Amino acid sequence: MQINQGKEVGVKRGSGFVLGLSLVLALSFVACGEEEGVEGGGGGGGGGDKVLPPKVIVSTIAGTPVNEKPHGDSDGDKTTAQFNEPRGLVVDAQGNIYVADHDNYLIRKVTPQGNVTTVNPRDEKPYNSTAINHPNDITLDSKGNLYATEDSNDQQVKKVTPQGEIDAFAPASPGHSMFSSPFGIAIDAEDNLYVADARNNCIRKVTPDENVITVAGLCGPVNTEGNANGSRNVARFYRPEGIAIDSSGTLYVADSGNHCIRKVTRDGNVSTFAGICENGPPSEFNAPSGLAIDAEDNLYVADTYHSRIVKLTLNGTVIPIAGGQAGFADGNAGEAKFYYPRGIATDAAGNLYVADTANHRIRKITLK
Question: How far is it, in rounded angstroms, from Cα 361 to Cα 341?
Fold first, then answer.
């Protein structure tokens, strides 16, 4: 999830020389090759000849196994709180992190000190308009309202007010969902929401008065997927999951099923920004999901099934940040490991926060 840098309520926007061959080898990783979108193996993922940047520190700020149980829903400090497949996240202006805790049906708040609380009460009947159901991603508007995308039965965007009231936002008619597995969500300076409507294979815009507009792609669950670039009506996506917006209003989409990153201009023209867009074996990316943009409009990608975090410069150059092998480890760029990370956010200081989904943890990447 991503917040436009122009907003003051939160930030999710949305070097050095290598000395000696031994350091090059220590900081580089080689692609292991995975099958498309298969949740198995580790894999360095494309760009195996690229060098990881130095001075990167990865740490865990919340979520830990308790009594050998890897996941749960307990609140507490960083040593006791647990998550269950956290996906999206967003950082507010005070440095608090809000997390879409997918398999717990919860929105969680993590303070800068690592204390975790639950925002919404668990509902005994989760499939209704006043409950959170399998949240995928989350964003924050200028008034402090949270918006969460949901999959499973609801297939909606839910709004959570600062007072804790929950309701459907831009709901469809009874029995007919407006979305189909809405995933990534981003917001611009005018509080317009942008949704990666994954199973409908398109990008939607939701205005503050709850009008839903197709920005790009052919929306529909059947025979709408593809990888074509072009105008809003010509372009096609395949299971888009992540979305972010830069300071100029340009959208970036993690086109997960096509294993690439797409760029959508304000007038709806779509192009391939990074990776090779095709529904086939992954190359540079493997089912990328979360996106975030920093104050300089650099794009960060949670390259999910390569279990790594990468940076994309303004010209689309891929710079690995950390990870590349499925597992769990804190440490520097060459030591750190993630396990199918899906969400990523930035704060005002340029730190990255990662929803390390299969590790059930929230991680922090400090770029020095």
Answer: 10
